[in-house]
User: Which sequence fits this backbone?
DNA sequence: CATGAATGAGTCTTCATTCAT
DNA sequence: CATGAATGAAGACTCATTCAT
């Protein structure tokens, strides 16, 4: 027999909880945010929460998987129209430097970085983290190696290292932005970093 | 009334507690590490702890202030002997790329990054953090501008931005190392980043 | 308004729920088994459950009343063909010593004993329990006194006490069997107990 | 350095908690009695409880071990002065039939029997239970076999079976007493059971 | 009647902090 | 000053029961 509420209804509630959880984890951090915070934020009851997620940890992980997945999807799509490796790379820099650095967006990044630290203390989560990191890492390596094949970029350069440095800059800048907030010239810094990397890649 | 114990004795106990606290916060994180963990690690009693620090938060803050201060001192001393700005900069890269990436060292960095996140949620701590960041930031700006004055580096470049990117790379790489652990070629990555920055700075 | 479904249909569902409840209470105990366990086991919905029983307690009580009733019916029927009191008594011993000590049967006994304990804490249930106990108790007393009248058994013996001891042995052995499980020589023990009682009853 | 409170003080508190726990488990049962019930009964705080026992389960187990141990100690001591096996056995019957069937004593037995059921659902506890049961079981077997050696008792009888039946009667009678309460002629029943067993053992 | 999502009081457990000794 | 037992507020999670659909 069909369930009394539609799947869309349930999915919406689930997403509401995820949104509330993101807001709470961002504001207070994983440990400090409570289930009560989340359900109060979402207007649901505690019991309802546990109908959708089995634990605080589970919603946290779901949140992370989802947001990482979504941001990677966007990245991949954005690149498709570009021809040369250099253009692709530039576009990646553009995307990151044009992110809306609204409060909400910043908070998402805070959750991501916090997770990185939490994961580093937990063997189960580490694998999870590595897998996600690899997706982004490989994505950039692919572009760089394409550029090397097409002789846009120097062949003497280790693509993996440049990719690693790019993501380090990304995470490092976000980390700093968390503290510096409004005064942080994220856009300009990102573009500068882009130039720096391109200059290094070019022969 | 004359104090019953010498100041040195008290200072030693304080330092013991700080060391234990660092070990515990590094291993478990600020929220997860308990006062019990710290006093057990240090061999003292809970009562003793509260004679030296008024709260868990206080020892955490003290720790951070102290450890940042120590690492900056080392940095400043290390470059004194160098002549040119380029040499100084290279030396900074060298220092970071030759850090001992032992478990203990990694854990200290984890504490630092975690603090960055915690601070970002607390207006009182943010100022604190900014002040500390500024010390490192200014240190690098000074070197870069010296290089620009001496025409070692291009004058078209914003020194503050390069400094910011350098510290972003530093924090970003440490963040990634936390997860990748032993397999992470920190040294090579640091040297690559150094080359990248130098190439960008040079005319 | 005419009922929408037949009485048989409703009774069938009720019995299904009772069976499921017995299985769950047996497996997990009254407190630990949940309504969810019961409805999952029966394939019904929680709402359906509450159409047939007003509470967890109610289904529990219903179960107990029913199962005690059933087992007594069997006992009474089994005796009818026997002539002498001694034969009747022996047959009771036989019936119990030949019960199938399958997992399911053991679990039923567990439920019975557990109910005994739960009832002992609740004045309403105690009367209930006493009434049921009395049925079994009187049944045995009747046989023994018949034997005394017919001079099969010694008249110096208090029939009620022997009956009480018989049921104590029965419940005690089942209790021990719950723990000893497969290794428990229930059949032999029951027969030994039977001989012991008969020897005592005989002049 | 010496602890600030004596070991006796701590042991007393521990025993207070055990007493309170026994009272609460007896009154409400393991599942229904709460930590709050126990600490309220003992006049301590919830936190204090967890200084002495790590969980509700732990205090429950401790309680069981202790009370079983104590009652067995008493039993063994009581026997020592007796010469013949028959006298020993009679004395065991006497001890049980002269137990004070006060409310408190009855409640202890309720806890014991309830534990038997709980243990039967948990593989870890079952072994525990078997071990305890064996102590009592072996104790009786020893006496019976001594009587067989000395020709006080028939050699055709399986000592283990008689022992098993004795303990079954004991537990069975206690179970029934829980429900019948004051009206239950425990003493007389126990003596009757004793005669029954002795008659069976004698040649 | 059936469904199963929602409710929220109730439970165990943790832990920063206090304070009598 | 040192000790560590005591405190109790707070938090994650459960589950019998209700009720809108």
Assistant:
């Amino acid at each position: 027999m069909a369930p009394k509420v539609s799947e869309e209804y349930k999915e919406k509630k689930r997403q509401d909880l995820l949104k509330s959880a993101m807001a709470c984890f961002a504001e207070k951090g994983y440990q400090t945010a409570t289930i009560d915070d989340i359900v109060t934020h979402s207007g649901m009851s505690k019991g309802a929460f546990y109908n959708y997620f089995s634990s605080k940890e589970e919603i946290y992980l779901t949140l992370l998987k989802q947001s990482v997945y979504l941001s990677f999807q966007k990245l991949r799509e954005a690149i498709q129209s570009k021809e040369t490796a250099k253009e692709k790379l530039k576009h990646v820099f553009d995307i990151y430097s044009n992110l809306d650095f609204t409060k909400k967006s910043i908070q998402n990044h805070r959750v991501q970085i916090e997770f990185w630290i939490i994961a580093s203390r937990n063997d189960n989560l580490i694998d999870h983290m590595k897998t996600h990191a690899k997706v982004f890492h490989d994505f950039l390596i692919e572009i760089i190696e394409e550029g090397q094949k097409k002789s846009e970029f120097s062949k003497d350069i280790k693509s993996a290292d440049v990719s690693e440095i790019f993501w380090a800059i990304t995470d490092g800048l976000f980390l700093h932005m968390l503290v510096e907030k409004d005064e942080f010239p994220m856009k300009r810094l990102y573009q500068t970093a882009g130039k720096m990397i391109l200059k290094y890649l070019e022969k």
Summary: The domain at 1-53 of chain A is CATH 1.10.10.60 (Arc Repressor Mutant, subunit A). Residues 93 and 191 of chain A are 7 Å apart (CA to CA).
